[in-house]
Please model this.
Amino acid sequence: MRQRMSAAILLAAGTLSLTACGSGVSGGPAADGAAAAVTIMNCGREVGIASEPTAVVGMSPSQTELLLRLGLADRLVGQAQTATAPLPGDLTDEAAGIPVLSETTPPSREELLRVEPDFVFSPTTYEFTAEQGFASLEQLDEAGVAAYVATGGCFDRRMAGTVDDLFVDLKNLGEIFGVQDAADGLIQEGAAQLAEIETAVAGRELPRVAQVYVEGSTLSAIGAGIEYDIVRLAGGDNVFSPDDPQFADFFAAQISPESLAALDPDALVFAVADAEQERATVDYLTRTFPTLSAVRQGRLIPVSAADTFPGTLGNISVVREIAEQLHPDAFDR
Model:
């Protein structure tokens, strides 16, 4: 997870409209005894699926979790990037028999195609970077493999992605796999959780929040995309925004310590891959910004990097996690 974040920075419950955010589903007539064909507009490309996929790969733990929550364990032939985040404990046994294709990076083209998938589900387009040795979208298409990228992870959506992009993904996956009831249940549950948080923080003074990412002594700010929306929904006032010049082309930007100190946020949210990175980040922030309001008040809020990636149920849980830290008296523990 840390590698992907670094690479990204360096490389620069109502009815939902499925044509929003560049993703949509349309069905075609079914042959006798066969499931209806589905055509998806995903990341600006048309993906045709002739029948319900039966050999599926989750390209990260977040996507694997979503597929398992939809009841598709028997269709999974591979899971990838397994060391970047743990699966929830209640899914450990269910996932135990699913072949691991990679641990810390996306699987190589050869490793992915070895399991002969007919559908792969990825959080971002990074997993399809041919220059990194991964299978490109074009190569997968040539091999007859349908590739679906989480709506918020599409290149042209990364700057404006929102938490409820997840609901578009769930609706699409429900149609693709014929599990509409399970998908609708997750949508309703997620929407109810967001509504509860919205009610809890309504009318309260919004703490000024900076979302940062620290690697070594390099400090980056997050000012757009799903991460921005997560803080907004949690009842925080983002000090960095998509309107800032440094986020004109990308959701993250390297900043100087002086620029963060000048903003003096009330709270700092930062994504980490593991406990070691959390300790290192806290140490850096407390040493570098001893007089910052967020540091003096002890409002340093770590969140799992995996929960901030597009197309994951963690997008919703991390909203609540941050909201409880920003507004501790608004929630019953």
